Each structure stands twice: as C-alpha cells, then as structure tokens.
Amino acid sequence: MKKGLSLFLVVSAISLTQCKNEAYQSQSTTETAAATPEKKEYKYETVPGDPLNARVYTLDNGLKVYLTDYEDAPRIQTFIAVRAGSKNDPADATGLAHYLEHMVFKGTSELGTQDWAKEKVELDKIEALYEKYRATKDEAARKKIYHQIDSVSGVAAKYAVANEYDKILGAIGAKGTNAYTWVDQTVYTNNIPSNQLERWVALEADRFGDMVPRIFHTELEAVYEEKNRTLDSDGRKVAEVINTALFPTHQYGTQTTIGTIEHLKNPSITEIKKYYNTYYVPNNMAIALSGDIDFDQTIRLIDAEFGKLQKKPLPEFKVAQEQPIQKPIVKEVLGPDAENVSVSYRFPGITTRETLVLQMISNILYNGQAGLIDLNLNQQQKVLQAYAYDTQMKDYSTFRVGGAPRQGQSLDQVKDMLLAQIELVKQGKFEDWVIPAIVNNNKISLMESYEDNSNRADAFVSAFIYGMDWKDYVNRPDEFAKITKQEVVDVANKYLGNNYVLVYKRTGKDPNAQKVEKPAITPVAVNRDAQSAYYKEFMAKEATALEPVFVNYKEDIKESKLKSNIPLLYTQNKENGLFQLYYILDMGTNNDPKLGMAVNYLKYLGNDKYTAEELKKEFYKLGTSFNVFSSGDQVYVSLTGLDENFEKGLALFESLLQNPKADKEALDNMVTGMLKARSDAKKNKSVILNQAMVNYAKYGAKNPFTTVLSEKELKALKPQELVNIIKSIPTYEHRVLYYGPRETDNLVAALNAGHNVPAKLKPTPAEKVYAELDIKQPTVYWADYDMVQAELLFLSKSVPYTADIVPVVRMYNEYMGGIVFQELRESKALAYSTYSVYSPASKKNRSNYLQSYIGAQADKLPEAMVGMQELLNNMPLADANFENAKASLRNSISSERVTKSDILFDYERAKRLGIEHDIREDVYKSANSMTFDQMKEFQQKYIKNQPQAILVIGSKDRLNFKELEKYGKVKQLSLKEIFGY
C-alpha cells in the first residue's frame, strides 16, 4: 500500500443495496452510433429500485465503468479496481502485487522524468542488477551487487522527479490519494473536485497504460518498514496464523499480502512488470465513480482515454481446494499486547447462499446492541470484551469470534463462553424477532452509508472484484431478508463444528521475532523544483473554476427554544428518514471523574420497566440506538435511528435517564473490568505513546489522562451515587441538536413532550483547567516496549489559539506535509510513516502544538532524528511545492461542502474557539496572495529552534541512548508515572 496497508472492509448486509427484487433491465442512450467517443452510442445497465440509480457500462476493451450521481458536494469519489491481489503473486515472489501498487505512483515515461532516454538506460541497469542480486547466494557478492544498485539508483534519480503524481493530485484539490492491496484486489483511490474530472481521467489513463518503477530501492525500504510494522503488531500476527491454518493449500493462507522477509529481500522488477502486463489490463479493471457527475459526459471522457488501452487474455486462476478440518487446530502467538483468544472457521466464497447466511449468523451473535454475544457476554460483563465478524472473499470466507478475559479468567474460559453462544445459534435458541430486526437495522445502516460517496463507490468495487452482476448485488439484501431461522440453524450446524482454528494470544516475548535488516542506502535526489514536460503541460490546462460555499451559521442553522429555556439548534434532513439527536452539556470528567463512571454505568442498567438486556432489545427493535459519552469538558447524550420511531425511542431513552435502576453486581463487574482494562492499556504501544506520554509532556504527571479514580476509590463507589449523577444530567443547562426530517413545530412539540427536565436548570460547574507546562529545555522521554521499530514524537508548545494565524497554519501544513514525506521517506528511506503538523487548539485560551512523528527501525534512529530536526529548523524553499500547496488549498476549499449534521458540529467547534464564522473563508481569501516569506516568518517565529519534548517508545535493547542524549536530558518514564496507576 502507498501510505499504510488497509484492512479490507468486510462486505456484509450493512454494505449492501436496499431495493425491491425487480427485473433486471438494460438501457442505452438514444444517440446514433459512431466511431468516436463524442458520437458513440453507450449502452448501460440499470437495476429498477437501485437506491444508487447506478449505470454500469462496459467499454469495447472490456473495462467496466460504474457511475452514480450524488451531489452532496462538487466532488467525486474515484476508485480504480484491479481484479488481482496477493493471491495472484508467484509463489516464489510473494508481496509482488503490493510492491507493484507502490510503483504505480512513481509516474510514467513522461510523468516523473526530466530525461526519459537517459533515465531508462539507468533503470534497465538497475533491473538487471536486481535479477543478478536475486540469483546470487553468496552474502559478500550480494553486498557488492547491492552497492552497485545503490550507486546506479543515485544516477537514475538525477533524471527523476519524485512525487509528481502526488503533486498534481494535491494541486487539483484531490484528497485521500492512496491505494490498498489485499488478497483478491488492488484498488486505487482519490476524491477529486468535479471540475477536475477531465484532467483526472487523462492522468489516470496515462499511469495505467505506462508504469515505470523508478526510485525503486528507497521505496523498497519503505516496504521493509511496512513489514516491520506488521511484525510489531500482535493483531497482524494472529491474523496470519489464522489464515495459514485455515488455508494450508490456498494462497489466502500460503502467502501474505506484504510477502515474506526472504522475498522482500530479493525483489524482481522483471516479475513486477510481468504482473503489471498480465493483470493491469482493461478487461480486468473497473472504474467506480460516485459524486457530482454528468453520466453522458463522464463515460465519453473515460472512453476517450481508457478506451485506448488494449485488452489481453487473462490467465485462469485455479482455486485450490481445501480439505475439511477434522479437529480443532490450536496455535499460540506471543507478543507484548494484552492477551486474548479467537476461534475461526472456514466458509465458502462470497457469492454463495451459505455465506449470505453467515452474515446473518454473524449479526445474530454480535451486532453491537442485541446479539447473543452482546447480551450474554458483554452486557452481563462475563468477559472483558467479545466480538464476532465474518470476512468474505472471492474463493473462501472466514468467520471469527474472539474475546479478552477479565481479571483472573483464563483464555479457555473465554473460549468456552464464545463456543456456547455459537451452540445457541446451532440449536435455534434465539428469539423470532431477531432476524427481522437485523434486516431492519441493516437497512438503516445502509441508508447511512449511502450518504457517503466513498461507500457508494466502494459498493461498485465489491460487485466487480467478486464477479457479481450489479443486479445480483442490488438484490442481495432482498435475499438476505428471506433467510429463515431454519436456514440459519442448518448452516450453523454444517460449518460451525469442531473444525475451527483456536489461537491463544498470550503476553510474552516472541521467540520467533524477526525484522527486515536495514540495507546501506544513499539518499537519492528528489529534485523538488524540477518539472517534467508532462507536468508543465498538465498544469497549464485550466479547469472551470468552482466557487466556494461557506457555512453561514445564522442562515444554515435553525434555532428555537424548548421548555426551561433550552436552546434547540437543528438542520433538516431532506434525504431520508433518519434522525440524530444530541443533548450537550459543558461539563465533563475534569469537573468530576465520577461523571465518566456514571456514563459508563448507564449501559449496564435497566429501569423500572425493563432490565438492561430488555432495553437493548427494545432499542434494536425500534431501529434506534443511544449513547452517552463524556470528555474532559463535555457530556454528549445521543439518540439516533428511524425518525418514524422518534417518539418511541425518545420515551425509552428518557425513561432510562429518569429512572435508572441501581445494580450492585453490574457496578462490581464494571469496576473489576475497568481495572483489567487499565492493566491492558499499559501493554498497548499506541496508548502509551499517543495518550499517556503526550499528556505527560503537555501537563506533567497530573493531567487529564491520569485524573482517574484510584482502585480504592473505584471499589468504594456506591450504585446509588452513580445513579444520582445519571439522573442529574438533564437537570443541568444544556442545548439540544437535531438533524432529521421534522419540521420546526413538530420537532419542538415532540421534544417538549418527551424531554423530561425541571422548570429551572442548574448552571454547569466551572471547568477544571489543567495548566500546560512550558517546555523550557529540550527533554527526551522514553518508554520501554518490546518492538522491532522505534516511534518518535517531537512535541513543541506554541502560542494560544488565534484565528488570524489559521490561514498561514493551513498553508504551512499543506506545504510541509509533502516536504517531510518526500525527504524522509522518498529520498532517505528512513520511515514508512512520517508527518509534521502544526495543530491549532480545539478551544480558545489553549495552546497550539507542533507535533512531528516518525516510525522507523531502531537502528535508523540517528538519521531519522537528524532528518526531522533539519526540516523543522531549516524549512527548504521549493517554489513548485509552494505553488502546489496554494492551489491545493484553493481547490480543496472551493469544492468542500459542510452539510447535514456536520453544519451543527462545525458550529460547535467554532463556538469553542470563540469565532462566529466559517474559518475556511479566511483561509481561502488568503491562499492566493500568501507568499513564501509569510510562511517562512511563521516558521521562524513559531517552529524553528523551539524547545521540544521528544517522546520515544522502543526496546531498550535497540535504542541508541548516546544519540538520544544529543537532543536533551534523557528520562525514562515508567508506566506508573505516565498512567497514574
């Protein structure tokens, strides 16, 4: 993957189209057929009742084109999907599809080069050297060859222009430029302004017709780092063990997407080219677009460019047939994370009826509200956490249940409880209302998902990758709704027996820990100010300008008053029948740590009419869900779902807030569960670095993260004490936010009738504010963690938030984001993931911070730190990058639209910062006239040579402490210091 290996989003009933099962039809435009795209007749397929109103075209060369018009903003979500993934890798060159994905971003024989004829000579040498390197076994000889590769790569890089593709996409206002590779597919993503469609189509047709693997060995090092990140992930290791055991014959288990260490060390550019020429052909690809499009114009643009690609015969993929698993396969994984257990099963591929039934089984067991695991294990706190989910793939699918133990509980006890829930399904011991409720809730989830262009376009990708006719994909929810209880029982008994893979993830040092060794790499030139002829010509073409639309809070938000003088702010949902309701209080856990406990306690409580489990069921039946969330300075109470059940859902929720029934056993279980969760958090490197250490650096030992009730205080809590806090929430001053289909009078009447509050509300208490530390002297804080990589955060405190510096902040982040990535990853191959962001505060009177990150092998620590510090203190001038940053800001903002409930929350954010207007307007107005000198002035005033807290997490056996001492006093932080317990 280009910037982070994506986990595939499981195709489930939630992501499937809702419609009537009507006859499939084909339509065509009425224009006269002709040879040119401008006059050509385009046939397309549609499905009656399709909520996407999609058109599916097939070009003469076999390219599939899926289009849906959804004009939420003048933008288009684009996916280009290739029906080939890691299962198509040669067995002796695993990871090849993923390598190739990276290379497709490197340009063509025209894009990304200053002199293709000279560059090609050097690239051919590099390709030949890699073949020689691959065939050589003697280590001394291999080092000499790699030195040659490094040397020739430096020469080749002089002719290259790094990141030209990314520069173009940034300049035209694209977002989310990335890609992912998985077992069945490789998919390239962009979100573009609609006025840039013609330029985007031409650019993409060029790069998918002509791939040049330039700047290869530094990108290869980025892939090494990506591999090391997976070796530091216990979750990834568990998944690999599961797949290997479930699929001993099929490529789903015999090879991984990122490849083996041995194959990573022996890449073949020749094999990558073969793969590209074999699978990256139009009859094996699809373009999926959702957004502000004109169907006829779009298909003509695509055909004019992509129609030039030549179709080719595709090799047949023979699906390896797996033999039945006769008895449980037991595996163990060791690593620093908290322990857990998982049980996994093998199922047929996604297009089978049985796997559709598997989706239902998965929901019956776990749906986040009223599944058997939800109610019997999580709600009753019999385990710390448990879940179930299905992962559907082309040839086979998997089903997994898992859980984490409570204190003193064995993994086998958790496993037994999970298997007991599966047995209930096999015996049909679930209520008859469950299946209809699952169907209904999935329809609601689908409506929500199709409010987003990314989800709409991704539905097309799923249909294409898995070989489904769009008709079948659209009608799949109707088939899902026809599943019977007996069918569920039959499929469960057929597939969920003793044929599982059981994995114990235990806490401990992994005796088989590996890492990809760091090769000797000389940084290559990135030629920031150089431009290819292609780039110049591309950027000279102008697109029709889009006018920005900013939020006018007074006009775009309706205001009213409820009883007790409660402010009501709302915007109307004119798209579907869903609502979102929020009560917001300006008080939180900084006022009272017990408030957070009370909020968590609520989900385990019933009321005077229903038990906690019965309440979950009632909400699920209504197609509604509630949540209560507390932060340091706010409480959010939310209710969402079908507006037709608004009154019923509101009454149910209000009855819980008004009459929660104290439950001592639930509180005791919650406290012991929290204590175990706290212990587990100390084994999570992300929590250690990004929460515990960052808060310590900002505030000292006493900070919002460590302000929690002690174990003694937790155990002393009384149920009624927390119940009283819950009941007090609606008695404080608060405001109500609503996004839904209701008109003013109806909404106000429903809320006045249903929202139970006293005649006079209490003022919220003053917030407890934690003083931010002044970082006067550079200090290095480090925490020991058993890992292959090291992760570093450079943290600098800056000035308090003021709106006047926001435009230059946005420009700085836009500009330096590309510079940091280009220099530390592309040129020096020091990291897979790196960034630097100046972050404005989220509330007035709070400080802004500069936060810079790099994750790299521990032995790259010296170079990584030098590289980051050099960029922060000596911001390089790159005219082309600066002009791109300006264009990117203008194009992004002009095509952005804040809509729906986002309007309300945008206003909430603005109020917290003390501003009364859409701050993007300031940024847009400043973008055209801003100079590099202005940005440099900002950089020198607020960033250069500012005292830093440098936070490091890594293994003490691998960290170079002498190097760390160059940057300040080194202090080890114990877990007790940074967690407060």
UniProtKB/TrEMBL annotation:
Family annotation (PROSITE patterns): INSULINASE
Domain (Peptidase M16 C-terminal): residue spans on this chain: 270-440
Protease as UniProt keyword: yes
Record key words, sorted: Hydrolase, Metal-binding, Metalloprotease, Protease, Zinc
Signal sequence coordinates: none
Similarity comment text for this entry: Belongs to the peptidase M16 family.
One Pfam assignment: Peptidase_M16
Gene3D superfamilies associated with the record: Metalloenzyme, LuxS/M16 peptidase-like
The name this protein goes by in its record: M16 family metallopeptidase
Phylogenetic placement of the source organism: Bacteria, Pseudomonadati, Bacteroidota, Cytophagia, Cytophagales
